[in-house]
C-alpha cells in the first residue's frame, strides 16, 4: 500500500486529518493567446493546508491560471510544482492523480442521485476494477462498501447528507453546485482548485457553501486555491490573497493587507456603486 492509498483507506474510517499537503508553487508562469498576455510571469504559492484566494476583474487571468494548474493549458514559460513534484506539462488526469483536483465554473452534474455522482468521483481510485465489481467478488464488495462510507462522510462534510439519495436534477442550484464540490473531494485531493464556487447562489446558499469549504479544510487538511468574486467570502475564508489584473500580480498578502493596499483600493474596492473585484 503506498502513502496515498493508505491515506485514502484512513479517510474511509474517519480518522484524524492526514498530514498537510505539500505547497503548490506557481513560478513565473506566462500564457499568451495570439499576442494577448493572459498571464505574464505570475508567481504564487499555496501554503500547505491554507486557503489562498485568487481575485481580480473579468479577464484578469484567473481561469487561465486554473487551466495551467490542472494541465489544460501548457505555459509558454514558467513552472508549476506540488512540493518537489513537477506538474508543468503533465496531462490533466496525471495531475489529478497526483492530488490536484478542480471544479469548473459551470455545473456538469445532472444524471443520477447525489450518491451516484459522488461514487463516480471514486472510480479513479477504485483498485478492484470493473470486472471484479460486476462479479461481486468479496474484495470488490468490501471496496465498494468502503467507498460508499467515505462518500457518505464527504456528503456530510459538504452539507449534502440529507440529499444523499435524491436525484441531482431535483436539487436547488446551490445544492447542485455543492455536488460538484463534493465530487471533486471524492478524488481525495491534496489541493483543491475552486473556480467561483458560490457564483449565482443566494445568500443562504453562499453561507452553506462557505461553511462547507471551512469544514472541509479543517477536517481534511487540504489546501484550497479559491477564485471568487464574493469579497465577503474571500475575506472570511482566505489566509492569503493574490490580486491579478491584466495577467499581472497587482497585490499579494493577508486579506486585511490586500484590502488596505492602495493599488487594490484604487482599482477595485474604493469605487462606490461598482462591482467589487
Ligand atoms: N482559450 C483562449 N483563447 C484566447 N483567449 C483566451 C482564452 N482563454 C482566455 N483568454 C483570454 O485571456 C484573458 C484572461 O482570461 P481568463 O483567464 O478567463 O480571465 P478570468 O478568469 O480572470 O476572467 C482574457 O482576455 C481572455 O479573453
Ligand atoms: Mg474565469
Automatic annotation (TrEMBL):
Domain ABC transporter positions: 24-271
CDD domains noted in UniProt: ABC_Mj1267_LivG_branched
Biased amino acid composition, Low complexity: 1-16
PROSITE patterns registered for this protein in UniProt: ABC_TRANSPORTER_1, ABC_TRANSPORTER_2
Molecular function terms, GO-annotated: ATP binding
Start and end residues of each stretch annotated as Disordered: 1-22
Keywords (A to Z) from UniProt: ATP-binding, Nucleotide-binding, Transport
Cross-referenced Gene3D superfamilies: P-loop containing nucleotide triphosphate hydrolases
Keyword Nucleotide-binding recorded: yes
A Pfam family the protein falls into: BCA_ABC_TP_C
Protein name: Branched-chain amino acid transport system ATP-binding protein
Taxonomic lineage from the root: Bacteria, Bacillati, Actinomycetota, Actinomycetes, Kitasatosporales
